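Sequence only, no structure available. Ideas?
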Amino acid sequence: MKIKKTEQKITRRDFLRGSSSLGVASIAATAGLMANTDDAHAKTTWAEWFQGNYRLMTDEEKKEAAQRLENRYSEEFGKQVTVDTTEATDGVLFGYALNIQKCIGCRRCVKACVRENNQSRHNSEIEWIRVIRMEKGSFDAGKMDQGYPEDHGIQVGGNSYRPAGVVLEGQHYYEPDKVPEEDAFYFPIQCMQCEKPPCVKVCPVRTTYREPDGIVVIDYNWCIGCRMCIGACPYWARRFNWGEPNLPKEEMNPETHYLGNRPRMKGVVEKCTFCIQRTRKGRYTACIEVCPVGARKFGNLLDPESEVRKVLDRKRVFRLKAELNTYPKFFYFVD
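Reply:
I predicted one. Tokens follow.
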């Protein structure tokens, strides 16, 4: 007995149409299940996974994304959290200047930045600002004859292994009894907000990019954790969340920006954004406000009357690693 076979030709378009319907149904079902949970994180994570790249979103999509985060953070941290989406202002190009003669190495800027920008605490503490402690030194005539071998033709001079002047080497973490220390020099480093940022060039998913006001930002939801930007940055300015960030509820800063200090997740890169949640509203960065010696200056590089422009016009200024052609908007100066 022969069974008659009915031939049915399925085109690639039919297959994809069926697959897409199944995908939408699966997502809808997952959303339905998550809607019945009390977990604030679970309620919104699915939507965040499927949202687009922030810089390509419409204004309405940006508003919806911020609202989702506000709802989740508010429930997660037990306080009213705002997620700002303020855009860059026309005619503004932010710049920063630091007087390295005045810095006393107190590291108050580091701690203020941690608190303001919701960085991970304690066991997996992340710090966006590094203050490098370096020894001052000079050549000592008394060591002229202390090299070896001792006879004529000394190959290793007695002034070896000593600091000579000040070089960009030293300790990133130090805890002295008081500062400034004798024979010590301090050199703070953070994101330089380059005009030609190498980190942006190497990002394979374009999750990090330069905003019109010059701030280099990161869309945390699109970061894939490849860390290529970390390798490309010559200023050691980026940090990676190897573990779940530790942010105590009582220490969480509720005034956040989508592209700045909102809580990050495991597996993404983060860095200084010139306190975007502050500066786009006309405020100083947290590190500037806390500096006890007034070593830090900030403002609009396009405004001749701004603090930072006056520094550039009147002081002896240099950029770190200028030979790399990254064109930082973070300047160092001396009186």
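The radius of gyration is 26 Å.
Hope that gets you unstuck.
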